[in-house]
Amino acid sequence: MREAKIISGNPTKKPIPPPVVAAAPASLRPPARLSAEAKRVWLELAPELEAGGLLTSRDMGAFEEYCAAISDLRAARRAIGKSLARAENKHQQVSPYWTILERSRKAVLDLGARFGLTPLDRARPGIGISSAGSTDTGGIKSFLDRGRGA
């Protein structure tokens, strides 16, 4: 896109964005500071995200927070027990575990969206990851390949 604007003389006169610098591949080793549960999440998801180009060295902080949020969410659910009723004490104060659960749930959904970890996010062009780990641009690539006889 950038090159096309340069070649065509930039008829719209809008600023041409700087070239995108490729990020280094991510380390698949979980940081030592993560809990055991968060490390399990990391080891489960990192290889697939890295293979799909969705996890690079620039994404490590956000992915670390995602793994920690999943860990916190699971720990809060265990602490609350099987009943996820909003437990309040005699002073009408909500359990701190419930607060952790709500905040962790929001963090998981927000951060997970950045990595295409929900079906809706994977449906966006350029984000989808197939089970084989390759990227799929929402079915467009396979549609175009069929037209070429591939």
Q: Helix- and strand-based class?
A: mainly alpha
Radius of gyration: 21 Å
DSSP strand content: under 5%
List the domain count as a whole number.
Answer: 1
Tell me the span between the first and last alpha carbons: 26 Å
- Average the pLDDT over all residues and give the rounded result: 75
Largest sheet: 2 strands, antiparallel
**Could you estimate the helical fraction of the residues in percent?**
40-55%
Q: Segments where pLDDT lies below 50 for 5+ residues?
A: 128-139
Largest sheet, order of strands side by side?
1-2
SSE string, helices as H and strands as E: HHHHHEEH
Total count of strands: 2
The 3D shape can be described as elongated
**Helix run count:** 6
Quickly list its features.
single chain; 150 residues; mainly alpha; two-stranded antiparallel ribbon; 50% helix; elongated
Description:
With 150 residues, the chain is an all-alpha fold. It has one domain. It contains six helices and two strands, in the order αααααββα. It has helices at 2-8, 36-51, 60-80, 96-114, 119-122, 140-147; strands at 128-129, 135-136. The chain has a two-stranded antiparallel ribbon with strand order 1-2. Strand 1 (128-129) and strand 2 (135-136) form a beta hairpin. The two termini are 26 Å apart. The model is unreliable at 128-139 (pLDDT under 50).
